[in-house]
């Protein structure tokens, strides 16, 4: 802790009339000043509260602050969301790489952090370069430099990675071979976990903001409700990697998350700004989310099973088809998603650390909050590709327009012959 911060915290203690001895952890790190400040305030105003309840209130206040921030960035639109995803990705990468550096910095490994950030740049260029080509096709074709970068994107990506690979080989030091290769693998696994998943999050966003908001909200809801149920009713330990996790919290979080997913999906399915795919408008050079809602977001009537009819008293129920899909999303978020957190807990225990960082007082680092989100992002992307997404006519047309005139004519004649054989072209001409 810096001298000024120590003096400020001490003066806060004097004003509040409490001693630091009540909170030994307040003398640990600079980033914990806010957490200590909240704890000291609660100690002053609620002196009879147990430390367990003080921690509950601190976590609760900061959780509400984070949820408020989440609503604000949703209101600001897709571009801000993508920017936030990129910032979170960079911060998570920084936290994981810093752990490796702190553990092995005494070995003075040459270029470790420089190469780590260079590989982050290369992988981001590879992934997001293809995304730009897919979703900003007209803009890319309009600008000559962008068209060249798009055409040779994979070759440029490979050349950039090869440069980093050669730099790593040249940095090898005889007495640290094994450790350097270990850190090389550390960097690549981190890139696989962080960059790939954040790229999938942005792909999910382009399918419609509902595919971004509902999964993330389900994970947040499960995290909160599992904590609440565990706090008030928890008795049975769930897993040794996380001693504070209980079966009561795990099961209570599951039912609460499924119910929350159904309600949130019902509300959001009625708004085009959430259900329409995010597309780039070349005329206005901005993102648009306006379309005719698909069947997935149109109310339909479903028959209730006979077993439940006597219980609820209804024979049919009107709901959006997306609500059925939300059950799958919320189930994954509450039953499988926590294993991302357990994985992170095992990782932290391996290096004898409590949190990835101290960015958010009471919650740890950014990676501590997003360990389950990354696993969820992969599931949502796979789910959309397997059960939701069909052939995209606009992308086919984009690819068709990039072909040579003779290739376009060949495809046209082939398509015409196919439609004539099907009898569709003749019926169109008659009409």
UniProtKB/TrEMBL annotation:
Keyword Isomerase: no
InterPro entries assigned: PC_trans, PC_Trfase_euk
Membrane topology term: Multi-pass membrane protein
Pathway: Phospholipid metabolism; CDP-diacylglycerol biosynthesis; CDP-diacylglycerol from sn-glycerol 3-phosphate: step 3/3; Lipid metabolism
Gene Ontology CC entries for this record: endoplasmic reticulum membrane
UniProt EC number: 2.7.7.41
Tagged with keyword Nucleus: no
Reaction equations catalysed: 1,2-di-(9Z,12Z-octadecadienoyl)-sn-glycero-3-phosphate + CTP + H(+) = 1,2-di-(9Z,12Z-octadecadienoyl)-sn-glycero-3-cytidine-5'-diphosphate + diphosphate; 1,2-di-(5Z,8Z,11Z,14Z)-eicosatetraenoyl-sn-glycero-3-phosphate + CTP + H(+) = 1,2-di-(5Z,8Z,11Z,14Z-eicosatetraenoyl)-sn-glycero-3-cytidine-5'-diphosphate + diphosphate; 1-octadecanoyl-2-(5Z,8Z,11Z,14Z-eicosatetraenoyl)-sn-glycero-3-phosphate + CTP + H(+) = 1-octadecanoyl-2-(5Z,8Z,11Z,14Z-eicosatetraenoyl)-sn-glycero-3-cytidine-5'-diphosphate + diphosphate; 1-hexadecanoyl-2-(5Z,8Z,11Z,14Z-eicosatetraenoyl)-sn-glycero-3-phosphate + CTP + H(+) = 1-hexadecanoyl-2-(5Z,8Z,11Z,14Z-eicosatetraenoyl)-sn-glycero-3-cytidine-5'-diphosphate + diphosphate
Pfam family, any one: CTP_transf_1
GO biological process terms, semicolon-separated: CDP-diacylglycerol biosynthetic process
Annotated transmembrane regions: 56-88, 109-128, 155-173, 180-202, 208-234, 246-268, 322-344
Main location: membrane
Catalytic EC class: transferase
Keywords assigned by UniProt, alphabetized: Lipid biosynthesis, Lipid metabolism, Membrane, Nucleotidyltransferase, Phospholipid biosynthesis, Phospholipid metabolism, Transferase, Transmembrane, Transmembrane helix
Free-text function comment from the UniProt entry: Catalyzes the conversion of phosphatidic acid (PA) to CDP-diacylglycerol (CDP-DAG), an essential intermediate in the synthesis of phosphatidylglycerol, cardiolipin and phosphatidylinositol.
Matches recorded under PANTHER family: PHOSPHATIDATE CYTIDYLYLTRANSFERASE, PHOSPHATIDATE CYTIDYLYLTRANSFERASE 2
Designated name of the protein: Phosphatidate cytidylyltransferase
Lineage: Eukaryota, Metazoa, Chordata, Craniata, Vertebrata
